[in-house]
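FORM 7B: Structural annotation worksheet

SECTION A. Query
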Amino acid sequence: MAKTICTVAVCVCLFAPLPAFAQKPKPPDRAEFDALVARVAKLESGAITVSDIVGTWLIVSRGIALHSTPPSVGEDFTTATFRFQSDGTGTLSLTGANSTLHLSAPATLERETGTTENIPFTWILTNGGVLMTMPDGGQLGGYIGAGGRTFLISTVATNGPDGSWSDVWSGIKLPN
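SECTION B. Predicted structure
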């Protein structure tokens, strides 16, 4: 009998749920609080600085093209890595694929893929974004959002010499 009581007591001690006590959250110290307030204020103001831009960005693009002469419909998908330096220079590397359906008889489908590495560019801050100038003089502008962590570029040409096309580029800043 004593052995049974002892066994039951040991089982109750080993398997009985123990009361849980949560740790009280530590209130932030003044420096942590001030840093958080500054980050929220910057996010709400939309003020972008060079330090927000500098670093590596992963950008994904999706586009469509419509051409009238000769008639065709195209689409493209591109991934890009933008590397912004603090001196206003940077490099761009692209990997893309596109398809074009040529509608004149007989209809044909053309597919292309390719990679281009380390295209140099210069950049400046604009009101809420970045303006990049490529080696051929072409410019590409983008908007920076979410406290300097997201990037959006939208390009459109309507009735241009090659028809109409549009691309939407969106991306995120990668951790350093």
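SECTION C. Observations
The CA atoms of residues 30 and 174 lie 29 Å apart. The chain has a mean pLDDT of 81.

SECTION D. Sign-off
Analyst initials: ____
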